[in-house]
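Lab notebook, design round three. We kept the backbone fixed and only want residue identities now. Task for the bench partner: fill in a sequence for the structure below.
Input structure tokens:
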């Protein structure tokens, strides 16, 4: 039967294509090819959902090539002279792969295929403009550029087919929303064309299909070329995933010493390395670049050890005698490094590749026979996409292992694996109605024609599915904003939009909707090669001459930071410890359904234990339903067992537990990242308002931790949850966000896309976010910034449902949520997941790193301020501070040590009448002075460290130690903790 179906699918193609298929060795089509080629060959729009490696590219392009051959060879018709087909991918690296894969077909069928992206040379661009290829492989941003070029615009009139690869990736991003309007602009040039989307499995294929074809609600023929078919190949039934939390062995104890880490991490490294050794080619996915670097450095250490043992003739440890070659791949490595490791993996020179989401998409690295996911993948879609990279080239089941670290991490991975098998995939999070995208594309439409009537521009924009609900008043406000920012000229009498002096410059500076955040290029001074990039935030927080960090799995010492050139010069060192760069925007949010299933497992376990079952029996029962051995599950359940034995109420999907005392409180809520983030902002704002003080927060999918004033207790949090009207949640959140750094940062980025301010570059001192907010409140710029924060970080509707369920408490609804309290911190409340970095970075820095920290702090500047006379201040380096500072004016030893930019605290102390903020500053200054008066210069050193205030400085100073190195280790540990949690406290 499959063979007959395959013959039928290929029968829809012409003889030239069938001959080419035979030459290429295509005897039987893959599953998506069998289902999708017939409708595509008939010219229909289609969304093809299938795992990576199942021949999706050929699924789309064989019918397109066939149509191009047929059009070229049709009797009497003049041959097309322009571009007949576009193949759009989200990554330049995918463009390179597609060119390699499609070039053979082009040569065989006499069809010219070319690539166009940001790195394409001017010579190639001119050549494409003068002699357009038949098929152009490009990116969404390059499409924006070629739509406005006079020659390329003529070439685009011939477009009859557009293929969008990895459409699920674009659907969840603003650049995808921008592309949907770009396709409508292309439609104005070329007329209706066939649209083909290639996607991984998503939970709402109909939504993604509409995203692909547009809604055309103002088109009279909207039922025609806007129709589409969905072809879906089940992914869950094609994957075999097991979850494993490795046991610690004797080998791991030895290995921990070699790797300067703990035994748990050593067991993870050993287990993954053993899995790689058992297979021919393994992808090792991690969730952050930090984890990739830290894990990669361990593998390189072991490979070097094995090479030395083999070279020296010494016996290596059992199981590691042969070097296992594992390299790194992520987006902050240079293009040359990425291409090198891709080619080496593809050729078989590498056994494994540690990678982030950079390898989720269809970059061709040859056949993969196993996938390791290190830590919970956080989402069902991500697990299917990653594990789906294995096995398909031989139509085999994709095999994967999720290596976890117990507790929440393991239970979450189990829930995701079960949901993947049941095809319970998350929906695509489409950016609906992003106003800065509209602003960008209005300017694009003006660039296309030189001038356009506002009505025609509005109809073009709203034919794109994400903007179908954009109102005319909203559109008019955006146009007026653009006119006011001189990005176009609005003729009020005719409603014609025309180019202005700023149109051209703005448009080409804003081809992309990706936020423009500065990165520093990292250069190895020994080889003069670029090894990667660092986000500006990491450079500002940590990078200084002499400091060490990990990149490409190797250790580097910074020799120079060039601010003007945005360049960091480094040299390699054999250092066993270093800081792992903290790249921005990498946290993968855990969806509410996944977190809720973890909550349900907890509830089920608690009920079984209360009924007299044993932990081992419970683990055995769960092992029959979830893909893990009983030992792995038993380890994961230990915090639940401890919690039940201590007599605490267990937080589940139907019970929130508020716990803690003093200044630390926690709300245990198994609702996922976005709901918990929303709850956290609501609780922090309202509890803080009642207490008259700020409340700090830290969020994970299962608990929210708060730093609160001493007078706040669990009852305050309970009261907010029980009394907040769910209908007013949006209004409360708007107020809570108004002064947040998240909104100010987003507002600055959105304002740049509207042309309201120069492009914002985070990290170069304070931008004046308050002034910007005040100036733009009530404009489309502010409206879009607020919408984006709500869309990306929060889940208002789901959180309103939680509040309603709490307030019903099951009395009027079946899905009521109980509130419970615990007067102390509980096993589950304190069992939060470690970040991907923390459990891989050594606990103690070595002596060289400690010396670097000491020198850096000694060279930092500090304000000395006398609180007795308040007349004397002096800014000096820490190394020049006396062992017991005193005021030269009055002789007092009440000297505060302040940050060198903290002139506001000096002014606050001197002020006769103080507001609340000045009172807080004054109090901190007096606490600082008390520490300096008691502990002298040691207090000044602690206070000069980054993110160490008087409270933490006192803890560091009062700790008993054997030597000074331990003091600086504690300072460094506190600095790292501040850097990790800074976004929550800002």
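Proposed sequence:
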């Amino acid at each position: 039967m499959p063979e007959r179906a395959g013959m039928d699918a290929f029968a829809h193609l012409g003889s030239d294509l069938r001959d080419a298929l035979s030459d290429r060795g295509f005897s039987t089509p893959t599953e998506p090819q069998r289902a999708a080629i017939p409708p595509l060959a008939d010219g229909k729009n289609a969304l093809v959902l299938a795992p990576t490696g199942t021949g999706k590219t050929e699924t789309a392009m064989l019918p397109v090539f066939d149509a191009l051959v047929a059009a070229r060879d049709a009797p009497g018709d003049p041959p097309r002279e322009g571009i007949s087909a576009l193949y759009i991918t989200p990554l330049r690296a995918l463009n390179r792969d597609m060119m390699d894969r499609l070039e053979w077909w082009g040569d065989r069928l006499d069809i010219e295929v070319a690539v166009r992206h940001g790195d394409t040379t001017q010579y190639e661009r001119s050549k494409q403009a003068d002699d357009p290829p038949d098929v152009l492989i490009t990116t969404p941003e390059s499409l924006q550029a070629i739509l406005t070029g006079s020659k390329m615009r003529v070439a685009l009139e011939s477009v009859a087919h557009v293929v969008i690869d990895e459409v699920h990736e674009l659907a969840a991003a603003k650049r995808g929303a921008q592309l949907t309007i770009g396709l409508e602009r292309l439609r104005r040039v070329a007329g209706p064309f066939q649209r083909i989307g290639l996607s991984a499995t998503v939970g709402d294929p109909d939504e993604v299909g509409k995203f692909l074809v547009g809604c055309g609600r103002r088109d009279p023929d909207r039922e025609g070329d806007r129709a589409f078919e969905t072809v879906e190949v089940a992914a869950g039934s094609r994957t075999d995933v097991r979850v494993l939390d490795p046991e610690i062995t004797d080998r791991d104890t030895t290995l921990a010493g070699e790797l300067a880490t703990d035994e748990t991490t050593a067991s993870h490294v050993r287990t993954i390395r053993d899995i790689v050794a058992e297979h021919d080619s393994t992808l090792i996915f991690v969730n952050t670049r930090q984890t990739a670097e830290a894990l990669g450095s361990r593998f390189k250490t072991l490979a070097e050890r094995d090479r030395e043992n083999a070279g020296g003739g010494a016996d290596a440890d059992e199981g590691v005698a042969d070097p296992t070659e594992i390299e790194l791949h992520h987006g902050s490595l240079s293009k040359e490094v990425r291409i090198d490791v891709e080619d080496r993996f593809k050729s078989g020179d590498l056994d494994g590749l540690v990678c982030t989401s950079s390898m989720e998409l269809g970059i061709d690295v040859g056949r993969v026979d196993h996938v390791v996911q290190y830590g919970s993948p956080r989402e069902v879609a991500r697990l299917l996409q990653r594990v789906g990279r294995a096995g398909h080239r031989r139509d085999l089941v994709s095999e994967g292992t999720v290596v976890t670290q117990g507790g929440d991490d393991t239970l979450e991975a189990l829930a995701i694996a079960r949901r993947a098998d049941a095809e319970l995939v998350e929906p695509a999070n489409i950016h609906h109605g992003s106003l800065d995208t509209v602003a960008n594309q209005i300017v694009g439409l003006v660039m296309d024609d030189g001038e356009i009537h506002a009505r025609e521009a509005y109809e073009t924009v709203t034919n794109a599915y994400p903007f179908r609900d954009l109102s005319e008043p909203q559109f008019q406000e955006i146009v007026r904003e653009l006119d006011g920012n001189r990005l176009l000229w609005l003729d009020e009498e005719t409603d014609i939009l025309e180019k202005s002096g700023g149109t051209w410059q703005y448009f080409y500076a804003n081809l992309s909707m990706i936020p423009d955040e500065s990165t520093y290029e990292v250069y190895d001074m020994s080889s003069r090669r670029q090894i990667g990039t660092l986000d500006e935030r990491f450079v500002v927080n940590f990078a200084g001459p002499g400091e060490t960090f990990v990149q490409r799995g190797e250790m580097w010492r910074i020799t120079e930071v060039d601010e003007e050139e945005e360049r960091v010069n480094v040299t390699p060192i054999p250092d066993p410890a270093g800081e792992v760069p903290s790249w921005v925007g990498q946290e993968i949010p855990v969806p509410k359904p996944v977190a809720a299933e973890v909550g349900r497992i907890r509830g089920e376990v608690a009920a079984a234990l209360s009924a007299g079952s044993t932990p081992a029996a419970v683990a055995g029962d769960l092992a029959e339903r979830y893909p893990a051995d009983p030992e792995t599950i038993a380890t994961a359940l230990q915090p639940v067992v401890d919690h039940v034995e201590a007599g605490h109420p267990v937080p589940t999907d139907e019970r929130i537990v508020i716990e803690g005392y003093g200044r630390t409180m926690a709300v245990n809520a198994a609702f996922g990242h976005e709901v918990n983030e929303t709850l956290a902002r609501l609780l922090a704002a309202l509890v803080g308002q009642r207490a008259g003080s700020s409340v700090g927060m830290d969020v994970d999918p299962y608990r929210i931790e708060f730093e609160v004033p001493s007078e706040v207790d669990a009852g305050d949090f309970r009261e907010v949850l029980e009394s907040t009207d769910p209908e007013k949640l949006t209004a409360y959140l708007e107020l809570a966000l108004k002064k947040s750094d998240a909104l100010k940062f987003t507002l600055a980025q959105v304002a740049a896309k509207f042309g309201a301010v120069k492009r914002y570059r985070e990290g170069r001192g304070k931008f004046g976010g308050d002034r910007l907010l005040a100036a733009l409140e009530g404009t489309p710029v502010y409206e879009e910034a607020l919408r984006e924060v709500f869309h990306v970080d929060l889940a208002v509707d789901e959180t309103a449902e939680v509040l309603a369920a709490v307030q019903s408490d099951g009395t009027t609804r079946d899905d009521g949520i109980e509130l419970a309290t615990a007067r102390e911190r509980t096993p589950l409340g304190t069992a939060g997941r470690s970040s991907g970095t923390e459990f891989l970075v050594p606990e103690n820095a070595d002596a060289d790193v400690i010396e670097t920290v000491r020198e850096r702090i000694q060279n930092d500047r500090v304000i000395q301020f006398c609180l007795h006379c308040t007349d004397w201040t002096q800014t000096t380096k820490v190394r020049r501070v006396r062992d017991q500072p005193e005021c030269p004016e009055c002789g007092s030893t009440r000297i505060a040590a302040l940050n060198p930019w903290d002139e506001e605290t000096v002014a606050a102390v001197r002020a006769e009448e103080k507001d609340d903020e000045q009172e807080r500053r004054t109090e901190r200054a007096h606490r600082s002075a008390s520490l300096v008066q008691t502990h002298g210069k040691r207090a000044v050193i602690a206070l000069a460290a980054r993110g160490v205030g008087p409270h933490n400085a006192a803890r560091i100073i009062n700790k008993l130690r054997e030597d000074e190195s331990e003091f600086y280790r504690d300072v460094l540990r506190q600095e790292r903790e501040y850097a990790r949690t800074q976004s929550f406290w800002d």
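Keep this in mind before ordering anything: Residues 2-233 form a domain with the Rossmann fold fold (CATH 3.40.50.300).
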